[in-house]
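One record is kept unedited as follows:
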Amino acid sequence: MGFDADLVLKYTGAFKRAAANPDTGHLARSDISPLESIKKLEGKMVSIHLKDKNAFGDMSAPCVPFGEGALSLKELPAERDGQNYGGWLVIGYEADWENNMESIRKRVEFLRNNWQKSAPRSAPGCRRTPIF
């Protein structure tokens, strides 16, 4: 499986400039725990692509607003902080392309309420100005 953290580490471990971008949605679709993958990828991540899905292990599961799906996204900030992670957090939403502003607003609200309390340290080039 291409999203498996063990495979990522196996093929990139010897390269200092190779990095990971775990995608919580793709991991969940593939029946792989996003939290466990992020734990394994400590020190190798430059970004985390954050999504929530309405089902775990279902390749056709659609995206849903953060906190409304099957993933345990509230557990990830503690892991991020424990790793002293300072990379990018990428918000992903792959549904309702023509009318997605309300879902995006819910995502930002979820992040402010659940992730901002332990906000990551800024990585070089990161913008700390809220966009909403």
